[in-house]
Amino acid sequence: MKIDNEIIKENLNSETIFFLEKFNINPLITNILLNFCYSKPIIIGNIYFNCVNNITEENLEDENINCIKSKLLIIGCGLNGDPIVIDLKTNEIGYVSHDELWEEEISARKAYFNSNLSLGSFYFNASIDSSFPVDSSELRDKLLRCP
Q1: Which of 2, 68, 86, 131 qualifies as a cystine partner to 59, CB 3.0-4.6 A?
Q2: End-to-end C-alpha distance for the chain, whole angstroms
């Protein structure tokens, strides 16, 4: 049996386009998603960039819907499953603590930790820096250590 591991560039499907339009996703973000739309999730360092054509399903799941309603678009996940999100108010990337979001059922904004990095910088740093935070706890700890 042959396993196909090839990652293929895709176009945004109609469901994804509808979702992006429904939630008024910034054209800049839409263009980035279009340029990085592949057939499979991509592992970058120890984190994931989701398959773009799966963002509708990911963002509308019962446990995640609070994110998109709070203008946090899920685009990937950390090593422990914490959603990686684009803050649609600032276009910066961060993590949402899945423990707080799913188990404590607090608002997504209260469970959000902003890296203060753009999408490109976030994933670039994850690819070259072995100490790059892989989840919300590590990012929170890093932010607390910084002046």
Answers
A1: 68
A2: 54
